Amino acid sequence: QVQLVESGGGLVQPGGSLRLSCAASGSTLSTYVMGWHRQAPGKQRELVARISRIGLTNYADSVKGRFTISRDDANNTLHLRMTSLKPEDTAVYYCNAETLSDVYWGQGTQVTVSS
């Protein structure tokens, strides 16, 4: 079973950038499809980006061209580079690890985009 811990969230001005990280332990990250999701107050959790075991990526339309997901299997870490941030990107961001039968979640990290 994998344990996931997110970091890198914070307060940033509109147009700014942040890099989120997700550190995995207890299992090898390379065996999982990895993803970032977010949940804003009063809204459902939504997929932001996903990366396959071989590095194929897909993104929500709202973040295409602004966010980049990457994985560093050697260091058991997942990243999300976020640029051109908008107030509507404000949410708790969660990383997850998926297999065909299981899904594991981190505890989340808050991202607030505000002037």
Explain what the structure shows:
The protein is built from no helices and eleven strands. The protein has strands spanning 3-7, 10-12, 18-25, 33-39, 46-51, 57-59, 67-72, 77-82, 91-98, 103-105, 109-113. Strands 2, 4, 5, 6, 9, 10 and 11 form a seven-stranded mixed sheet that branches. It is globular, with a radius of gyration of 13 Å. The protein starts with a strand and ends with a strand. 30% of the residues are buried. The model has no long low-confidence stretch (mean pLDDT 96).
Descriptors for this entry?
single chain; 115 residues; mainly beta; 4-stranded antiparallel sheet
Give helix and strand order, one letter per element, not per position.
EEEEEEEEEEE
> So what's the overall shape?
globular
Helix/strand structural class:
mainly beta
Q: How large is the radius of gyration?
A: 13 Å
Mean pLDDT: 96
Please provide the count of β strands: 11
Which band does the percent of strand residues land in? Answer: over 45%
